[in-house]
Structures are given as C-alpha cells and as structure tokens.
Write a structure and sequence with these properties.
- Helix 4 packs across helix 5 and helix 4 runs parallel beside helix 6.
- It contains nine helices and 14 strands.
- It folds into two domains: 202 residues, P-loop containing nucleotide triphosphate hydrolases (Rossmann fold); 41 residues, no CATH class.
- The protein is α/β, with parallel strands linked by helices and 329 residues long.
- It has a seven-stranded mixed β-sheet with strand order 6-7-8-3-9-10-11, sandwiched between helices. Strands 2-1-4-5 form a four-stranded antiparallel β-sheet. It has a three-stranded antiparallel β-sheet with strand order 12-13-14, with no helix packed on it.
- The relative contact order is 0.12.
- It binds adenosine-5'-triphosphate and magnesium ion.
Length: 329
C-alpha cells in the first residue's frame, strides 16, 4: 500500500523525469522509428499504485526485428499497449514514426492505429472477427483506408500467400488451426502496410512446432514485407533467432543481447541509461558478493567494477566492462 507522502514523492519524481525528458528531447533517437524516452506508466486502482514503467528508454530502428523478454509483471504489455496507441504514458516521451503518442488527439490516435501500427495479441480469438473469413478479415482494415476493391483483394491474396495460408482464404477462424489463425492475424495487421508490427506473446497459446511457423511468419513480415517487428516472447527459441533481444526488468530496459547471425554466439550488453545508470545482472554480482556499493576504477579503455570489500591492490577479482577489450563488433 502506498502512503500519500510516498505518492507525493513519486509525483514530484515523475515531474522531474518529465522535465528532464523535455530538455533532452531534441537529439535523443532522432532517426529511430520508435523512441521511448524515460517512459513512466503508473496504474492507480483502489488506492494502490503500480509503477508498471519506471523511466524506460528504448530506441528501435526501422527494419529491425526485436524480441522483448522479461518476468511476468515487468511491464512488457504495458509498453506494447502504449506503442499500440491503446494507452497513454503517465510521463515521458514516446514517438513512433515521428508521431508523439502522448499528445495525439482522438482522431490522430485512430489514424495512427489504422495506418502506422499493427498488432497481434496472444489470444487467437482477440485478433480476428469470428464471423468473417481470413480474406475478409484482412480486407476489413483496408476498407477504411481508401484502397479500391480490386487492390484490397489483391493485397489480401498476396499477404495470405506470402504467409503460407492461401488455403485458408475462405475459412472462418473456427475452421482454422491456432497457428493458421495467428498467421491470418499477422496478415490482417499488415493489411495497411504499418511501419511497426507489435506482437504480444503471439505464440503463447501454441505448441512449439506451431509457434515456430508463426514466428517464421513474423520473420517473413520483417524480411520480405519490410515491417519493423517488436515481439514479446517467453520462448527462448524465438530470442535465439533474432539479432536483438531486449530484457525488461521492473519497468525499465535492463539488458540487451545482440547476435550478428543465427549461428553467432550471443553477446550480452547492459543498458546504460541516459542518466548513466547501469544494471548489473545478479548472475554476475552475486558470486562476487557485490551488494549496495561497488568500487569503480577508470582505465583508458574500460571501467573496472570491484566488490566493495576488495582493497585497491586486490585487482582482477571483479567484473570488467571493457569497451574495446570485449566488444566483438
Ligand atoms: N490496468 C491495470 N491496472 C492496474 N495495474 C495494472 C494494469 N495493467 C497492468 N498492471 C500492473 O502493471 C504491472 C506490469 O504489467 P504488464 O501487464 O505490463 O506485465 P507483463 O510484463 O506484460 O507480464 P506478463 O508476462 O505476465 O504478461 C503489473 O504489476 C500489473 O499487475
Ligand atoms: Mg503481458
């Protein structure tokens, strides 16, 4: 339970965060497709406050396929709902394709959801209209975008074909498997050529073989149809197949894993936020007994981080973040 004094402190922290975000807004992520700058989302229900996002920073470039992982309750869906234009942040900046999502009018929000962003939910039943065929589902969002009938039909046939479900064109969702439904959902989300495709655990209800097909469809959406894709997943097989995996912890981006090709071993990076904060993974700090405070040493090409108990002469027992020494790029 949060006391009112704590609430006031939280509120002033947030206005400070927002003011700082305003000051730094100009240059941060200018050329990125998705820019989240110190994003805060607080839910208040029945006198209890939940800080679902606590100053989250994230940049995603156009053309990327990014996986997002994190424990239950870490804020993944909260972020996806904000990026989808379904929810607004409490503070901070969020921009997609140059549009400021925090200040959009209702009409702009509608246009944004129709033209800029597409989304796929975990529950297959939430993605498609049950009384329409796959083809009609894909065509529906295009009806409001001014495309002619012939162009709409051609686009629907193309999408269903590329995603491997041409055989489902005239079937309703209840006549399709879970994996086919999710691929039809991807086709529907792509109908209006969105800049950004969001998928919140799209394979969560599927067995692993079907999940692979659906993930392959997201890869196709990215590589062949040019969509920038952000996919939330608990499936290690998915994060092992993307170049970039971002981990969210306690409402902030904490770690990133980058790999240059599927065969490459993954390289872990900690996110250094704009205030210079760095979250060290427990798996690294615990074995060294690092708690509360660590000792830093500045070297020409890296920074050494040592347990507080180590004396200055006691060198290499700590972890070391070498920019040049360890950077594989
Ligand atoms: N509408 C809401 N009202 C109040 N609290 C909420 C609401 N939605 C989410 N929360 C809380 O915000 C926090 C983040 O929730 P969120 O759904 O973003 O987590 P998640 O990372 O998607 O988790 P999961 O992996 O279980 O889907 C949680 O503590 C959750 O209980
Ligand atoms: Mg979620």
């Amino acid at each position: 339970m949060t006391t009112s004094a704590e609430r006031i402190t939280a509120a002033s922290d947030i206005s400070e965060l927002a003011a700082e975000a305003d000051r730094a807004r100009v240059s941060y992520g200018d050329d990125a497709l998705v820019v989240c700058d110190r994003l805060v989302r607080i839910y208040a229900a029945e006198g209890i406050e939940v800080q679902a996002l606590q100053g989250l920073d994230l940049l995603i470039n156009s053309g990327e396929l990014t996986a997002m992982v994190g424990a239950s309750g870490s804020g993944k869906s909260t972020l996806m709902n904000i990026l989808a234009g379904l929810d607004a942040p409490t503070a901070g900046t969020v921009k997609v394709a140059g549009r400021d999502l925090a200040t959009m009018s209702a009409r702009e929000r509608l246009n944004y959801r129709r033209d800029v962003v597409g989304f796929i939910w975990q529950q297959t039943s939430r993605n498609l209209l049950p009384y329409l065929t796959a083809s009609q589902n894909v065509i529906t969002p295009m009806r409001f975008s001014g495309a002619g009938r012939r162009a709409r039909n051609a686009r629907a046939a193309e999408l269903l074909g590329v995603l491997g479900i041409a055989h489902c064109a005239n079937r309703r969702p209840d006549q399709m498997s879970g994996g086919e439904q999710q691929r039809a959902a991807i086709a529907t989300a792509l109908a209006n050529k969105p800049d950004l495709l969001l998928a919140d655990e799209p394979t969560g209800e599927l067995d692993s073989a079907t999940a692979r097909d659906v993930f392959a469809a997201l890869q196709t959406a990215n590589s062949e149809l040019g969509a920038t894709v952000l996919v939330v997943t608990h499936d290690p097989a998915v994060s092992s197949q993307v170049r970039r995996t971002i981990a969210i912890a306690d409402g902030r981006t904490s770690m990133e894993t980058l790999r240059h090709s599927a065969a490459d071993h993954a390289v872990e990076y900690a996110v250094l936020d704009r205030a210079g904060r760095l979250q060290l993974p427990l798996a690294m700090t615990e074995p060294l007994g690092m708690r509360d405070r660590v000792r830093l040493e500045s070297e020409p090409d890296h920074i050494g981080v040592w347990p507080d108990s180590a004396s200055p002469g006691d060198r290499p027992r700590g972890v070391s973040h070498g920019k040049h020494a360890k950077d594989p790029r």
